[in-house]
């Protein structure tokens, strides 16, 4: 018998569990469910940029045709294909608006990939904090009026950058923020990594339809696409000429054809015209599970103050007197693999590829819930720390590793970012305070890199 290598062994052990996949990617392991023979021999399709199959950063053949098809579907002036996930799209968006010593207004619930790109490009963020109206702590909605206030203070910024939906499915008012940005003639960039399916809601909730200048879609999160498949949509023609060149600055010169092929096949999946009904069905199932969870005593995200994406079931963990790892063990014992579990929340991501049996497992899990609720603790909120150095200067400054207990008053030199959800708690250049230390301990972080 052939010896199994470590990663193959680990993945095979996961497959043996036959868990209901409430995590990304959106194909849920059923990419061949719709077309049984497609890519069954992956090695045959794993090629490189040979003659006749086009080149990602030139895109004047088949890849360009795929990109144009996606642009028509999403209503963009130009769409770029990415085999480097939404991260590559985010890097490209920011590179297109960056200027020397530039400033950018950004939601503080951004993903770590955006912060890394800002540091490399020398952009200094001006933070807008989520309003906590949904109650999830580290996520939340960005208020249009808060964006307006920052634009009034800093009219010379390169762009406004927001994340919507966030990791918990909370949607900000992109349309109103876009109107405000237009009134100040400042481009709006949206990290829509978790919202490629929002085009297929009625009405559309996709950022391009709501007025964004650019946005990224991580197709693999909710669509039947291999991990790493993503799109960069451009609505403002000003940014089209340099887009491919900027993307090539960050992307691999050997883009994965299997990923790009899965994106290409997604076009026919979309063009069947069934997505509106399929995602309505997903949202209906999630809402039904939420109603059951609420009856069992789970605290849910508050949707009254704004819109939510109901492809995500978000369950409280903190009001049961157990740890996140214990909650995760209970889910897995019920045959459910979540996207994310912390001591505060559990996130289950659904897509049309989740079968009825998957939802029945969650229903059974909730019906069998037998713990009494305890007094709720307050949600984890991203601390508002004082900036002491620029983001870029802090990252590249001489540094040392210290324990969390000894970090109060020191300046962070590296991001501290539980991933998922990928939202930084402490950002390079910020001075660490007691509240940050407390939150970091709660997240199980024991050391941090600080400026010497």
TrEMBL record:
Cofactor(s) annotated in UniProt: pyridoxal 5'-phosphate
All residue ranges annotated as the Orn/Lys/Arg decarboxylase C-terminal domain in the record: 380-438
Alphabetical keyword list: Decarboxylase, Lyase, Pyridoxal phosphate
Any Pfam family: OKR_DC_1
Tree of life domain: Bacteria
GO MF term list: carboxy-lyase activity
Domain Orn/Lys/Arg decarboxylases family 1 pyridoxal-P attachment site per the UniProt entry, residue ranges: 5-271
Family, per entry: Belongs to the Orn/Lys/Arg decarboxylase class-I family.
PANTHER family the record matches: ARGININE DECARBOXYLASE (PTHR43277:SF4)
Protein name: Arginine/lysine/ornithine decarboxylase
Organism: Hydrogenoanaerobacterium saccharovorans
């Amino acid at each position: 018998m052939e010896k199994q290598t470590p990663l193959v062994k680990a993945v095979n052990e996961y497959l043996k569990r036959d868990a209901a996949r409430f995590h990304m990617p959106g194909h849920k392991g059923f990419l061949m469910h719709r077309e049984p023979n497609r890519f069954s021999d992956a090695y045959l399709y794993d090629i490189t940029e040979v003659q006749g199959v086009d080149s990602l950063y030139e895109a004047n053949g088949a890849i360009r045709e795929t990109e144009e098809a996606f642009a028509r579907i999403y209503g963009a002036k130009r769409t770029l294909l990415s085999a480097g996930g939404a991260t590559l799209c985010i890097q490209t968006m920011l590179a297109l608006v960056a200027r020397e010593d530039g400033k950018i207004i950004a939601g503080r619930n951004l993903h770590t990939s955006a912060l890394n790109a800002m540091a490399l490009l020398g952009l200094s963020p001006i933070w807008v904090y989520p309003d906590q109206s949904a109650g999830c702590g580290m996520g939340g909605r960005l208020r249009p009026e808060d964006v307006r206030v920052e634009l009034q203070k800093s009219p010379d910024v390169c762009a406004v950058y927001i994340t919507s939906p966030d990791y918990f499915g909370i949607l900000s008012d992109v349309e109103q923020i876009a109107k405000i940005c237009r009134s100040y003639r400042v481009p709006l960039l949206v990290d829509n990594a978790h919202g490629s399916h929002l085009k297929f809601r009625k009405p559309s909730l996709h950022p391009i339809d709501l007025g964004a200048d650019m946005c990224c879609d991580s197709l693999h999160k909710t669509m039947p696409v291999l991990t790493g498949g993503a799109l960069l949509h451009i609505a403002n023609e000003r940014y089209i000429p340099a887009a491919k060149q900027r993307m090539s600055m960050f992307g691999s010169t050997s883009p994965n054809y299997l990923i790009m092929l899965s994106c290409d096949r997604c076009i026919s999946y979309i063009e069947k015209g069934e997505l509106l009904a399929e995602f309505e069905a997903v949202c209906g199932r999630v809402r039904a599970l939420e109603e059951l969870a609420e009856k069992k005593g789970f605290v849910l995200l508050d949707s009254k103050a704004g819109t939510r994406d109901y492809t995500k079931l978000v369950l409280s963990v903190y009001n049961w007197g157990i740890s996140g790892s214990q909650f995760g063990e209970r889910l897995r014992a019920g045959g459910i693999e979540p996207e994310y579990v912390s001591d505060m929340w559990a996130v289950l991501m659904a897509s049309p590829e989740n079968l009825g049996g998957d939802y029945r497992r969650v229903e059974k899990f909730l019906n069998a819930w037998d713990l009494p609720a305890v007094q709720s603790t307050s949600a984890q909120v991203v601390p508002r720390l004082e900036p002491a150095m620029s983001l870029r200067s802090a990252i590249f400054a001489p540094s040392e590793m210290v324990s969390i207990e000894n970090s109060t008053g020191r300046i962070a030199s590296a991001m501290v970012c539980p991933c998922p959800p990928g939202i930084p708690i402490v950002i390079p250049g910020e001075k660490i305070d007691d509240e940050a230390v407390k939150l970091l301990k709660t997240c199980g972080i024991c050391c941090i890199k600080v400026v010497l």
